[in-house]
Amino acid sequence: MVPWFLDTMPPAYFRQVPESFRLDHIKAVSAVRDANMDLYLNLQSHLPDGRLVLTFIRPGTQPGLLLQMVKDLPWNHFQGGDEYLPLTRVQVFSALDESMSLNMFVYGDEVSEPFDVTVAGSRILEYADAALASDVSDEIPNEICERDGLIEYMKKCSENYITRSDPRRYLQQRMLFEKVSGTEGTAVHVEVGKGFASLGICCVHGGSESPSNVLALPVLFFVFSTYHYYCKAITRR
Length: 237
Description:
Blueprint: H1 2-8, H2 11-16, H3 19-34, E1 41-46, E2 52-59, H4 65-72, E3 78-79, E4 83-84, E5 87-94, E6 100-107, H5 117-120, H6 122-133, H7 142-145, H8 147-154, H9 159-164, H10 167-180, E7 186-192, E8 198-205, E9 226-232
Parallel strand pairs: 8-9
Antiparallel strand pairs: 1-2, 2-6, 3-4, 5-6, 5-9, 7-8
Helix pairs in contact: 6-10
């Protein structure tokens, strides 16, 4: 079971999901498969800072599955009485063999200590400086890579988001953010993987409400065998 899980989950899953959660997922999937039951699981856990994580695991990767999971999400999560927990992060993964979908929904705002964005985002800043100095276009406008503006944008982001982001994708996501900032619009970037075997989708919504209202968008793109969809709240200050 373990070798199958390690071989079938996409690389993005191992990069972005903490080891403790991956172990929980393996144990849960193993128990269901060993019992010859349908792979239909709802798991609940917490991050070290107290944020609530709901993991939905379903068989297959058919169109409409993600949308159904969104409809199944509880809308009234509360913590400590009347403290409402907003949906702030979503990670969606499909198995390489299309046998299952594993989606994680994080509730609650990330709590972090003050940090130096120039240190946390040093890789991104170096990449942006190199892009500005290069004559080779990377489809990212120079104003997105400009250092002072980029540092100000980083101050809107969590430390975890900055340190875990691929520099090129981070700049692409900033480009989408600037496109919809101050509006209620939505921007989408689709990235096709090597050999057209995978599909990455980034959706950015300009509204202030929960990101759950843009989760239905990826169902339009389920034409490849593997996909990774990422949704993260960025504070507008």
